[in-house]
Amino acid sequence: MYKKFEMELAGRTLRIDVDRVAKQANGAVLMHYGDTTVLCTATASEKPREGIDFFPLSVEYNERLYSVGKIPGGFNKREGKASENAILTCRVIDRPMRPLFPKDYRNDVTLENLVLSVDQDCSPELTAMLGAAIATSISDIPFDGPISTTQVGLVDGEFVFNPTAAQKEASDMALTVASTKEKVIMIEAGANEVPERQMIDAIFAAHELNQQVIAFIDTIVAECGKEKHAYESCAVPEELFEAIKEIVPPAAMEEAVFTDEKQVREENIRQITEKLEEAFAEKEEWLAVLGEAVYQYQKKTVRKMILKDHKRPDGRAIDQIRPLAAETDLIPRVHGSAMFTRGQTQICTITTLAPLAEAQRLDGLDESETSKRYMHHYNFPSYSVGETRPSRGPGRREIGHGALAERALVPVLPSESEFPYAIRTVSETFESNGSTSQASICASSMSLMAAGVPIKAAVAGISAGLVTGDTDDDYLVLTDIQGLEDFFGDMDFKVAGTHKGITAIQMDIKIHGLTRPIIEEAIAATKKARTYILDEVMNKTIGEPRPEVGEFAPKIIQMQIDPQKIGDVVGQRGKTINAIIEQTGVKIDITDDGNVSICGTEASAMEEARKLITIIVTDFEAGQVLEGRVVSIKEFGAFLEFAPGKEGMVHISKISKERINHVEDVLTLGDVVKVVCLGKDKMGRISFSMKDVAE
């Protein structure tokens, strides 16, 4: 007999079944939120993985199309690789949970989330976030939970918790907040330029609701939770630290890391490590953990320098941004390009414009979103950090960074009616030393402007870091963290936005949560830095979007036709529209409401296509003068084609003012002539005349 637990959450029933399925996992729950059902399991290996110096956590979010009554496309008819949404969901589950596992735990842990059914008003992603936390909390895996996650929307100025599909559509904000019992541990947001104060209020409104859910989870753990198992600690022996300090005193380590050149610092650490390897050559047990020991020694040194001495490794002030530079039109012939440099972080973004037909099609669980016209892709090659490894395509990090930049820029994009293009921006990382995702936002904003995309405002991004002491009041917030401060610090708080407000947030931390003063200070610091970047660098490089798209970008003209005439333009099996495309060399898209987009690079060809479509959809009227090509000659007259699929006939008596015996005396196949429409004859047929054109 399984156990069932229920609570009302944001107006819907949340039900958790324990010991109903997947009983061989360390922890498993069958989650029900409305009609959304997700199986969440937590499983750990019996022994630690040998030869690693990190906690091997894997998070999976498996979408099944049967959950929304669909059969997968393609020949295979089964789900393929994880969708972008699935990867982003894995990341948002991982980020708040990872810090709560023991730092010296080396057993493999896998959190599996299987989506079984989807109620569009009850987010399967949110259900999986809650389920992963509950499954781990009731398992015997060491975990300092529970945690809870809440989604927040902003509809008509009011906060909406765990919004329905309709509310998401109308919302000015998509905020996700995870909390422990005391603190906020993860924030992710996309927003339509929401003011900082309103965003902070939303974060802590979600935090309050999370406390109710955590109290509910506590009752489940109290009744069903297993005793946490003992594990083999992989902590570095204290005597090794003492031996290292005798060979490399703290002052020497400070000198090694105190530089703004990443390569110099890495060379210094390499020399220190070689020196220690020689000193401990006969102690194999120490050599096995020496790399971790040196890492922790660096970490303690950097944290002490920052927190106690207010000294940053590159000598900057706590709120100082690294040297900035920006330029546009770096790459010839592309539709738009811009490069943004912040210290040793350098991103070049290229913009490509295309007809709306090239928008990305989505085949996922969200039935309200079937395509997207704006795509942001982010690439992180190994040379950007001075390393060598083969390129295997984008990993989860690259997909996450691309999605973050995309989310930051979507709120300022023009509507399809204002700018009928599909838009792709690709951020190439040329050099990396901290916050490349935020640099890609800056570069992309300028690249879009350079391409002539009429964005509503420039968007900049910056990251704040954190170093904490022994108490909640002992901390220091850093502006524009570099790689070393990210590695050894406690937080990477990325905020993007315009002068008006925030468009995106992503917060990663390594500690057990943040207090309200820390979050408020971090948001204030990023606003100050973001304003400086916009005013002093980006707007001075390109202050507004260019009035037209570039020379090599496709041009688009739009026209509206009667939806009932769409069939005439398309023709049987696409014969008519394909003939226009072949004749003019343009691309043509037609929506169900009769909106026609003609895309090409030559204005004359686009105008010819527009003229042909106009002829096709316009009914012949008396007095209308047209130009047609002779396509057929009969004894009684000639047939003219005015546009693909649009023909008319000139009777032999209407060809010339002089009497002619044969049509061929005046016309041959392929001749282009002008005619005037005479209206309908006695039999209701449209009549045309060549001889009456002048009149």
Description:
The chain is 31% helix and 29% strand. By secondary structure, it is of the alpha+beta class. The chain has 5 domains: 3-147 and 199-224, Ribosomal Protein S5, domain 2, CATH 3.30.230.70; 238-307, Arc Repressor Mutant, subunit A (Orthogonal Bundle); 324-467 and 515-541, Ribosomal Protein S5, domain 2 (2-Layer Sandwich), CATH 3.30.230; 555-617, K Homology domain, type 1 (Ribosomal Protein S8, Chain: A, domain 1), CATH 3.30.1370; 625-689, OB fold (Dihydrolipoamide Acetyltransferase, E2P) (Beta Barrel). The strands form 6 sheets. Strands 8-7-9-10-21-20-18-19 form an 8-stranded antiparallel beta sheet, sandwiched between helices. A 6-stranded mixed beta sheet has the order 1-2-3-4-6-5. A 5-stranded mixed beta sheet has the order 11-12-13-17-16. A hairpin with a 4-residue loop joins strand 9 (173-179) and strand 10. Helix 1 packs across helix 10 and helix 15 (575-584) packs antiparallel against helix 16 (603-617). The termini are far apart. The model has no long low-confidence stretch (mean pLDDT 92).
